[in-house]
Amino acid sequence: MAATYLPTLKQLQYLVALRDHGHFGRAADASFVTQSTLSAGLRDLETLIGVTLVERTRRVVRFTPVGERIVDKARRVLREAEELGDLARAAGRPLTGEMRMSVIPTIAPFMLPRILPRLRRDYPDLKLFLREEPSGPACEGLHNGRTDCVLLALPFACGEVASEPLFDDRLYVAFQQGEGEPPASIPAAAIDETRLLLLEDGHCLKDHALSACNRPELRAEATMMGTSLHTIVQMVDNGLGVTMLPEMAVNAGILDHTSVTARPLDAANAVRHIALVWRRASPRESDFRLLAGVLKDHS
């Protein structure tokens, strides 16, 4: 029987790194090898399978159609290989070893500072690597194997995932203080659509806020700002409009040292559901559920 030569995991890692970074030098840096080592590994891979995967020019790295398909398959192969290690870890002590978690920007600065010290204290052998990114890239990274789990606000279409709910996070309307005592809550109908400031597309908080208000004209008239909640609060503090904030941000003190106040949004679905999500059938499901329990207990 003729010998069968298979691509190595290292060659597949080089290929995926080049697709992710679009540059041989940056892909080599991300892979902790020299550029010549990465280039040689990819040439060996192309020779092995007998097709051109990457068109090389002075300025552009362009994947061929078959190269794109093989990258997608390579991601799945690498994810399955990683899960071999996950199986071994799952058989040992809980919450040990490396874990990569993405957290969306409207959760990370308000929840993580309270949670991480306790997690380090109770599970010192857990090496938790964090990535802050919007919901879409976080879910894409989950399915590509770049991250293991995502701390997310639902509803959000994250694909085929398993999840563990943590808690509900109520939505608030934030506005500059005027004379007199503001009402206990703010009806959605009372929001001036021409003065509403929201995060740009890609941040699920924007969609949760607009969905809760159930006013189509808000989507058309609101100003979408490509910035952070902290920056939008400063804009509100300077009289430039009103905004929506999650309760966790209000409780974490985002309005401290400003003239901005906030009141609960009076609407039927004025809440987002915070959850931990991971790939279905992951061998580390018991770890993720344990982590979710820790997050829930300390929220």
UniProtKB/TrEMBL annotation:
Q: Give the matching PROSITE patterns.
A: HTH_LYSR
Query: InterPro entries attached here?
Result: LysR_HTH_N, LysR_subst-bd, WH-like_DNA-bd_sf, WH_DNA-bd_sf
Please give the superkingdom of this protein's source: Bacteria
Q: What SUPFAM superfamilies does the record tag this protein with?
A: Periplasmic binding protein-like II (SSF53850), Winged helix' DNA-binding domain (SSF46785)
Q: Report the sequence similarity comment from the record.
A: Belongs to the LysR transcriptional regulatory family.
Query: Is DNA-binding among this UniProt entry's keywords?
Result: yes
What's the name of the protein?
Hydrogen peroxide-inducible genes activator
Q: Which residues form the HTH lysR-type domain?
A: 7-64
The cross-references to Pfam families, in alphabetical order and at most eight, read:
HTH_1, LysR_substrate
The keyword Transcription is assigned to this record: yes
Q: Which UniProt keywords apply?
A: DNA-binding, Transcription, Transcription regulation
Naturally occurring in which organism (per UniProt): Sphingomonas longa
